[in-house]
Design goal:
Length: 209
Amino acid sequence: MGIEDAGPGTVRPGGRTARVRASVLRAAGDALAEHGFAHLDLVDVARRAEVGKTTVYRRWGTVTGLVADLLLEMAEESLPRTETGSLLGDLKANARLVQRTLADPRQGALFKAVLAAATGEEKTAEALHRFYDTRVKEWAPCVQQAVDRGEIPQGTDAHEVIRAVSAPLYYRLLTSADRLDEAAADRAAEAAVAAARAGAYLRGDDGHA
């Protein structure tokens, strides 16, 4: 995304303004986790961050602009992929990272709030899509390496495999009160590997995708 395409709050500031951005985004994340998107208020965020409300309005403009920047920061700050030498090892590392994030009281509540908002807010949905696109692209090379090693078939859609790992974890977060633990993460990774080996994620003429 070029600067000319960026909406309010999506251009990362540098220098002294970085501290303000960090404080405001931390405050926005806390407010989202506590009260949800519907009650997110720029004046309250400014108060929490101990910055002037004019600064917040000038830099982010709207609640959706602020949430978009929060998601951008989360994507940028997420841990890089782990490469263990096997597809199962790599995908378990991916699944456990997702599990730890969603099981965290603050982060889990924050993601629930953003997911709920994305169903009715187009700009929030676009920001959420960019967040997941960034994370999927970060981990997709693990799948391509598995193709190159001969672990899974040529033509496997790497992005679909990565999505398949986290999908059951998000489903459990949103539909169940059961604890989201490492065992659930490992099962998600094992299922994705088994499906990939069976050719479930082949692209185009190579399969069904």
